[in-house]
Amino acid sequence: MVPFVDLKAQYHAIKTEIDAAIGHILENAQFVLGPEVAAFESEFAHYTGGAHAIGLNSGTSALHLAMLAAGIGPGDEAITIPFTFVATIAAIGYTGAKPVFVDIDPVTFTMDPSRIEAAITPRTKAIVPVHLYGQPADLDPILEVARRHSLIVIEDAAQAHGAEYKGRRVGSIGDLGCFSFYPGKNLGAYGEGGAIVTNNPEFVRTIRMLRDWGAEKKYLHVLKGYNYRLEGIQGAILRVKLRYLEAWTEARRAHAARYNQLLAGSGVGTPQAMAYARHVYHVYAVRSKHRESLQKALQGREVETGIHYPIPVHLLPAWSELGHRRGDFPHSEQAADEVLSLPMFPELTTAQIDTVAEAVRTGASTLEDALAAKRA
Ligand SMILES: *Cc1c(COP(=O)(O)O)cnc(C)c1O
């Protein structure tokens, strides 16, 4: 069996360091925030090239507080894409603002910058590009539109730790960058976690207060805040894992290159990394018109796959209030119908990649034969 991800393999590779880091927290009883979280924040800020990082209890909380720090609230609008994980949209909703969608570029699966202008209204406050699958959105034209209309840019970098746009790490390029440390993400905690990266000290002040009940100092609550604090154990674990992130990212990139090579001419579409991008392959998704059958064929050969994501957010029941229907964002809808994520994690072996690629090639050609027979 080739698993979709294997978090146990990674733990076993770094077990001694992780166990020591957890033991240290238990001995010192620094369970919430504390020195390990503070040290992780400065190391992660340095890693992303941003001036500050604020540790939080999830990527969703990061998006929520980034919106609040940017002053987004009821009556406002934030522009994003429907082909993303629902959290991007939920966070906009938490503030009372309305999510406004623009379609994706069908090649990169990220925001099509040429569509933003038409979606801007007098209520628009922010643009929220998503670096989906680990490929940066085309940020320069997005930042240019934002500057022209005085809009805040909040990067959803939950899938893109270490990804680069024109040589700069994402998360530090817009006004605020949001990361998730959910266990399966490229940098994953052993539980929930997230962070905001920003260069703006005023945002830092507000976000630090909002994550801890809006307190300026103990029991002086100047804002209506939240309990969005990162745990000490997660901070300590993330410090250990951050030291391996570059090696893990290079392994993902090498695995993607091997998949690309083995799947060329197989009948499935392979991911296109843009010239401006250092793609970090949180997800390696192929495309097929026969996605469901291909997924079944792979299941038959004991290859686990995933679909990120089968329903674009504008068609989800939870967001029916936005009044969208099929046909509104055709590139997002087509992507949702065609993408299939193959096993991708740093510890994947060459033999496993070869097994998966062979299964895809056989599966895809069998499907083509079956269709040709039907047509004949
Ligand atoms: C994972 C993810 C989030 C949410 O992060 P959590 O830590 O799970 O709350 C937001 N946006 C995208 C694109 C994600 O992949």
Let me know the number of strands: 14
Which sequence of strands runs across the widest sheet? 1-9-8-5-4-2-3
Q: Would you identify the regions where 5 or more consecutive residues have pLDDT less than 50?
A: none
- Please trace the helix and strand order, writing H or E for each element: HHEHEHEHEHEEEEEHEEHHEEHHEH
Q: Which range best describes the helical content: under 10%, 10-25%, 25-40%, 40-55%, 55-70% or over 70%?
A: 40-55%
Mean pLDDT: 97
Backbone structural class:
alpha/beta
User: Can you tell me the overall shape?
Assistant: globular
User: What is the domain tally?
Assistant: 2
- Largest sheet at a glance? 7 strands, mixed
* CATH superfamily caption of the largest domain: Type I PLP-dependent aspartate aminotransferase-like (Major domain)
* CATH architecture level-2 label of the largest domain: 3-Layer(aba) Sandwich
CATH C-level class of the largest domain: Alpha Beta
What is the number of helices? 12
The whole-angstrom Rg is: 21 Å
What hetero molecules are bound to the protein chains? pyridoxal-5'-phosphate
Cα(first) to Cα(last) distance is 36 Å
